[in-house]
Design brief:
With about 110 residues, the chain is an all-alpha fold. It contains three helices and no strands. Helix 1 packs antiparallel against helix 2. The radius of gyration is 18 Å and the shape is flat. The chain starts with 7 loop residues before the first helix and ends with a helix.
Length: about 110
């Protein structure tokens, strides 16, 4: 075995953090595409860039932490963190919109 099993909690932690980071990067590109939502090509381009940068984050983190070995749990942890961040960001946007609407009503 290339590395001891004591590294697995570190691998899980870093892959979870990489999934969260990839989710934030994907949200950033979604926000950029939201600014130019009338142009269809820009939306497709920013979605493509979000997917590419998310893959680069997954690949780079896996290469640095797990010596480039793709295992099922690595992809599972990354995807779970990515999905968790996406749902968390949707919830945060709903809260921000509701707070913004409350301030408009108070004025």
């Amino acid at each position: 075995m290339l590395y001891p099993t004591l590294n697995q909690p570190i691998i899980i932690l870093f892959m979870f953090l990489a999934g969260l980071l990839a989710g934030f990067v994907f949200d950033l590109f979604k926000a950029l595409s939201f600014c130019c939502e009338k142009i269809k090509f820009v939306n497709i381009f920013f979605d493509f860039l979000g997917v590419v940068f998310s893959f680069v984050i997954l690949w780079g983190t896996n290469l640095l932490v797990n010596f480039g070995q793709f295992r099922f749990y690595v992809l599972l942890i990354f995807l779970l963190a990515f999905i968790f961040q996406r749902y968390l960001s949707k919830f945060m946007f709903k809260v921000i919109k509701s707070l913004k609407n409350k301030k408009k009503i108070e004025k």
